Amino acid sequence: MGPLLVIGGVLFLIGIIVTVSNLKNFKRRQRIIATPTSPIIQAPGNGVVEIKGRVVPSEQGLLQAPFSGRHAVWCRITVQELRRSGKSSYWHTILTEVDGRLFLVDDGSGQLARVIPMGANVLLDKQNVASSGTFNDAAPHLEAFLQSRGLKSTSWIGFNKSMRYEEELLVPQDALYALGPSRREPGPPVHDGYRMVPGSQLVMFQGMGPDGELLLTNKTEAQLTSKLLTGFVVGLVLGGIGMLLAFGGLIVGIAEAF
């Protein structure tokens, strides 16, 4: 086999793997595009809805992020350790934790939606809050956090490990895009122009199966759809290049044989 055929075959295989692994994101993107945005006050609450607004704390209040100390309605923390294998090195995740509170969304329509984030697929950018390593001791609150989880920032002989501490946060007044199952629950009374009548509140939650996914992000819809498409397109491009190289290698091999 010629080098072109081998390289093409490897690229084609990588492209197939990348494409298949991003198939769920492609389907998410299709679901986002197919679902129109509903004003909260008009959303029926008997199926999948898409809303956009600003994060508002609920009666459950806020949590405090363990690394930065910032207050948020939802937080995911990640601790990674730099490890070495031969001449190469890589970041290995040693701890991931998620915490959240029920929160509200205000889209200016005159009614707030309630979001139950437990189990949701939350897409946020990671923020590198701190790091520790050689000649850089972990801050006391970071060391205390690690010890409470049975971990340490130092090796068994006392040398600092190379570590980084990351957070993903949803904070009050963040822009929010939400897509997922919904229902209507009793809410505060409202005035219909004549008298006070029973009101209702839109509630969004994580359901069952792929169509029951609750998707939350502080990105715009355009940013989200672009991000979800990237991996799928990269896979297709790699697969296409691999196929062309393999075909070219095959042609060259046939020509050399004759």
Summarize the structure.
This protein is of the alpha+beta class and 258 residues long. The protein is built from four helices and 13 strands.
Q: Average pLDDT, to the nearest integer?
A: 90
Output the helix-strand order: HHEEEEEEEEEHEEEEH
Strand order of the largest sheet: 1-6-7-12-11
What is the distance, rounded to the nearest whole angstrom, between the alpha carbons of the first and last residues?
15 Å
Task: List the uncertain runs.
Answer: none
What do you see in this structure?
By secondary structure, the protein is an alpha+beta fold. Helices cover 30% and strands 36% of the residues. The strands form three sheets. It has a five-stranded mixed barrel with strand order 1-6-7-12-11. Strands 5-4-10-9 form a four-stranded antiparallel beta sheet, with no helix packed on it. Strands 2-3 form a two-stranded antiparallel ribbon. A hairpin with a 4-residue loop joins strand 11 and strand 12 (196-204). Helix 1 (3-21) packs antiparallel against helix 4 (221-257) and helix 2 (23-34) crosses helix 4 (221-257). It starts with a helix and ends with a helix.
